[in-house]
Amino acid sequence: MKRKQIEKVAVKRPEGKGWKKGKRVAAQLSGGYLILELWNDGTWIYRHAVDLETGEYASCDMTGLWTQENLNNAFACGNCWTIVDEERFPLSQKERELALDALKVNWPDADVYERIGSLEREYSRERRDRKEDRRVQRVNDLMDSVPDIDRAALEWIDDQASGSLHYAIWDKTDDAYQCTACGRSFAASSAKAKMTHKGDATCPLCGQALIVEKRRSSLQKKARLTLIQKLDDKRGIERHFDVTVDWEIFRVVKLKETIRCMLHRGAWSRDAFDLYYLQHGGWDNKGNSFNHRWKPGYLYPQGIQEGLAGTVYQDWTDVFEYMAAMGMKANYNRLLVDTRKSFISTVEYLAKGRFRQLLEDISDEVDYIHGYGGWNALDTSKKDICAVMRIRDMQKINRLRQEDGGIDMLEWMQWADKEGKRIGSDVLSWYGRNGITNAKYRSSRASRRLSPEQLMNYLNRQMAESYGGKRKAKAVFETYEDYLSMSERLGKDMSDAMVYRPRELKRRHGEAVEENNRRIEAERARMDKEQARKDAERMEEKYPGSEAILATIRPKYEYGNERFRITVPHSFIDIVSEGMALHHCVGNTERYFDRILQHETYICFLRRAEEPEKPYYTIEVEPGGTIRQHRGMLDEEPGIEEVKPFLREWQKEIRKRMREEDHEHARLSAVKREENLEELRRKNNTRVLEALMEDLMEVV
Ligand SMILES: [Zn+2]
Predict the structure, then answer these.
(1) What's the pTM value of the predicted model, to 2 decimals?
(2) Measured in angstroms, how far is the CA atom of residue 196 from the centroid of ligand 1?
(3) Nearest to 72 by CA among 105, 48, 104, 45
(4) Is pLDDT of 398 > 70?
(5) How far is the CA of 205 from the centre of ligand 1 (A)?
(6) For residue 128, what is the enclosing H or E element?
(7) Contact 68, 58 (CB under 8 A)
(8) Range 492-502 average pLDDT
(9) What share of the chain has pLDDT > 90, as a percent?
(10) Between the chain's N and C termini, which has fewer beta carbons within 10 Å?
(11) φ/ψ of residue 262, rounded to 5
């Protein structure tokens, strides 16, 4: 955009009368640009120019400052709610024709600003597209410059991941063995050794040492590889591969690269790297749709120094070269993140001390933001090995090394050291096999009473005796913990061995569950009762006399046969409690008490003859016997087909017992009912209406 040229064009004043009031816009053409001036109350405040050919645009304000703002933003002056149209920003008729003509719009109703807006949007969209195209091209160029993995690296990872193993895979159809080293097969009879599964053998064709495999027709092993190398003078690269080794006819190793991390030389730590992930459309540094993650694996020993030189990570060079040469597995990408000297030397110590598993576990604990934190298992701020490991007894540290223990074993040793307890190798491996970690043991209720060995013995016995070997140790442990926590809640004496170490865990756990449920039920009932009493007190105050009415109607409405009976509640508390027991709305709503007071309806209870105390149905009945509503448990209708004939019988009985005043109440009630239904119809409340009509049982 030629800004200097546009600046030379004189500011145009709006045409026509009254231009000094409110917002006005003047338009002119100059050198292929449409120039719009925005005026407010007679003052010029803004100039906006748009290139009629390309749609490129810019705005200039009173201070002469240019911004690349589109028309809408410029005229709205930062207020995103302002609508920019011709009504709010008027132009003279002549100028809008000029503008529309310049914009090549030939329908007279078009809005000038709308048309400019779409021209500008098109321009910025194309510009974005071109920018994105350039970005993608840069990414592709960079990714293309990454070298293919060389033969030596491939062979090295093949050796590491496969353990250089070859197999004699049995084919039972012709009793022959496939040698994965030479790819040929030989008859069982030509093998010199006795071919037992997992046993050693030698290929009679190529002389390679083999392992006999009689169960599977192929074998597979997965591993991961990290490769650090120089990419160019500006950057090193760290690459992550998934490695698959297949033994079928031959042994074949396959690599799939998933992440590339550019390590920038001479950069500050905050922009020291950027990540590219393998995605649907190839490599990109935007997003990670397959959710690739760095995982512990091998590090290729060549190229590390060249790759890390000049980056913020170069202090890792020596340690990484050592670990790579030793074939140590680690999450190398996470290790790189923490470049503190104390952490690097801790890792170096672990590597040189051959704490392989511990090192692998520790590397995976490094946090991408905070590095290896003080909350983790090791204290890397210390120099002395005992302080780093948080273990005073050197023997335990040696044991950790000898057994190549990971973090879990470290935590067992730390626990034993702190508590002054011993823990045997057999016990430790039992916990390892069963997936019960030290953290889980430490935080358990069982650990308050039982040593690791006692707990192991107890769980083993329960697995065999209570569960007949059908449950895993971990699941039995969970049941045990559940039992202990319930027993504690139930106020049992937790120091009593009969309680904390029951002989029959399964049975005792079941009993505890039942007892616990009973308590919960009792507590709920107590609270319901309390609530019912309070509600009833409130109702009594508000609707005095309702209870007296219930007393007078009792002889007329109580009724029963051999299956069911109808009773009339004695008090408010009866009604509220019934509503709570059946979890329906009668009793929660004051409307019902009001109706009782008006003799509009009464509340009665329907009970089964064999369970006269147990709430079954609540009935709202009119003085004449018409039933407005019947409500069972949770507003449902259990056994309604049996109940209905009984209700018909009851209605007949009520008719017989009615007196003169009852007929009058019944007549008024029917009127009110009709008003009620009419109102629902008017409000179009079909849901309630339908429910009421379904319940309604008029006297026939
Ligand atoms: Zn062979």
Answers:
(1) 0.66
(2) 18
(3) 48
(4) yes
(5) 5
(6) helix 112-144
(7) yes
(8) 90
(9) 55
(10) C
(11) -80, 130
Are the C-beta atoms of 307 and 230 separated by less than 8 Å?
A: yes
What would the two tokens of residue 220 be? 């597979």
639 alpha carbon – ligand 1 mean position (Å): 79
- The lowest-confidence range among 46-50, 442-446, 660-664 is 660-664
Answer for the pair 196, 268: CB distance below 8 angstroms, yes or no.
no
* Helix axes 473-489 and 452-465, enclosed angle (nearest 10): 100
Q: Is the distance from CB of 549 to CB of 529 less than 8 angstroms?
A: no
CA 191 to ligand 1 centroid distance, Å: 11
Q: In this model, does residue 587 exceed pLDDT 60? A: no
**Rounded distance from Cα 184 to ligand 1 centre (Å):** 6
Residue 226 CA to ligand 1 centre (angstroms): 31
Helix (H) or strand (E) holding 176: strand 176-179
Supply the mean pLDDT for the chain.
89
Distance from the CA of 190 to the center of ligand 1, in angstroms?
12
| Residue 616: strand pairing partners | none
Compute the distance between CA of residue 412 and CA of residue 407 in angstroms, rounded to an integer.
Answer: 9
Residues 6+ apart with CB under 8 A from 671: none
Ligand 1 center to 178 CA (angstroms): 8
Q: At residue 151, does pLDDT exceed 70?
A: yes
> What is the total residue count of the chain?
700
CA separation for the pair 152, 140 (Å, rounded): 26
**Residue 522 in this model has a pLDDT that exceeds 70:** yes
> What pLDDT is attached to residue 36?
93
User: How many Cβ atoms are within 10 Å of 399's Cβ, its own excluded?
Assistant: 18
| Residue list, CB under 5 A from ion ligand 1 | 179, 181-182, 203, 205-206, 208
Residues in CB range of 416: below 8 A, 6 or more apart: 396, 422, 423
